[in-house]
Every structure is written in C-alpha cells, then in structure tokens.
Amino acid sequence: MSTLPEPLRTALTLAAAGVPVLPLRRGKVPFGNCPDCTGNACGGRPNMKTPGLCRCPGVCHAWAAATTDPAVLTSPAWMAAWRRAVCAAYHPGAAGQTVVDLDDAAAVDWARETLTATRTVETTRGEHWIYRGAMTSHNAVRPGVDIKSSMSYARYLGPGAGTLTDLPDTVRALAVKEPPTVRPAPRSLSLPARSGGGQCPHRTPAFLERGIAMAEQRITGARTAIHATVYRTFLAVLSTHGRCGCLTDTHVNRLFTAAQTKGETARHCTDAWNNARTTLGL
Q1: pTM of whole model > 0.85?
Q2: HSE (side-chain half, CA atoms, 13 Å) at 219
Q3: Backbone Cα Rg of the chain
Q4: In the predicted model, what is the mean pLDDT of residues 171-192?
Q5: Cβ contacts of residue 250 below 8 Å, gap of 6+?
Q6: Which of 21, 24, 140, 169 has the maximal Cβ count within 10 Å?
Q7: What's the rounded Cα separation, in Å, for the pair 47 and 53?
Q8: How many CB atoms lie under 10 A from the CB of residue 241?
Q9: pLDDT digits over 7-55, tens only?
Q10: How far is Cα of residue 93 from the mean position of the Cα atoms in its chain?
Q11: Are 129 and 115 in contact (CB under 8 A)?
C-alpha cells in the first residue's frame, strides 16, 4: 500500500466506506475524455445520473466515472491517472450526501447565521458544509455558494469536524435560485433592426435549440484550450441570443453543465459568462 500514490490511498479508504471516488489532475479538475468519448461519441455518458456506469477503461467522465470498485481504481488505465493526480474527489450524491461549497469568508458567515450546523471541512478560501441526503446540484445559488450533490464532484479535503446532520429545507430552498436569466440589452445600446414588425427571430424553438446544441457540442468537443473555448462559445451565444431575452435559465444551465463536464469550475463558468456579457455591453 505504501507504494501507491497518496491520492489513491485516500480514494481506496473512501471507496471501502461506500463513497464513489475519482482522481483530479493539475488545476483540481477531472481528467478529460479519451478520443473515443470526445464530443459524446460514446453516447453521452457524462449525462447519466448514476456514477460508475462509464464503460471507458480510463478516467473519462468526471463524476460519472466515480466508483467504489477497487479493481477499477487500481486498473492500469486508472493507475496512470492516479500517478498524475493531485488529489482525490468524490461524488457526494451517490454517497447520499450534499456539499454546500462556501467559497469565501462572507459565504461562511452567511452559512453560520442561516444553515443548520453540520460537519464542516476547511477549504483554501472557505469551507465545505456536508449534509446527509442528496439533491440536485446547483451553482451560484447565492454569492460564493455552490451546491454539490448529484451529477457533481467535490474534492476530498479530510474528514472534517462536527456531526453529519440531515439536509435541511433551507439548503433545498436554495435550489430555486438559478444563475440569472440573461437580461435585455440596456436602452442605450444600439441594436440591429428586426424584421417582421418587431417579432424576435430567435424565438423560433428550432433555431434557438440548434444554437444551444451546437454550443454544447463545441464545448464538449474541445480537446485543448478549454477556458478559451468556453469563453468564445459563451460570447458567440450571447452575441446571437443575448439581446432579445430569448435565453432562459435552462439554456444557461445547459452551457454551464457542458463546461463543467470538461472540467471547468462553477466560478470559471460564471466569470466567463460575465466577461462575455461585459464584452458585448449586456
């Protein structure tokens, strides 16, 4: 056991306790898709709601590849990843848990005043509050706060302090606060004239759906320069659909999900989106 990489030793301990795990590479992000799985060529397994069902022999689908099987964790393909890994991560939802990720001191202060006390783990800039019970993951539910549970991963930073308590309704209620809907452009912004007596051409469902689907494919198909690809894709979507109010929370979440599947953090997604809006004057 002493010859195994430290992240793998941590992962095997977690897996033995029934917690699905995966390695994170430099930048504390999952390993990217292999060529056979790039662009959802494998059937889109990153969108599955159950981890461990990825049939790729490598560490290919972020949270969806998380497993408790020691034979998989120590297989040759996974061992190659563990040797490059900087830490272990886990899939909270599959472990029956929810992590409230508090990204800064202000968010921690808010949690202490608002949320039920539970097990806490210190992070680089804030804390993870871990509850018993799973829910849908949501990013940016309020400033500096993400919810990581189903279809998400969290870094393992140690056992933490305090007693694990049941997921309170106050946390579930945060899920209604999605990333903000794209607002129409300011009145001072000069927009091109619309044809059809003011009828917005982007409200055609097929046109908008095709645009979002192409954006998702562009992000998930990127093999290099992921940060730049995400920003350019957000910029392209906003330049076409951002001034007429066609985009909804659902569309924005689809783009954020595609970016996070490629290893982008919620904060990177939010920053890229806001920078694109600023560039376009939205």
Answers
A1: no
A2: 27
A3: 20
A4: 52
A5: none
A6: 21
A7: 11
A8: 21
A9: 999 999 999 999 999 999 988 888 887 877 776 667 655 445 455 555 6
A10: 13
A11: yes
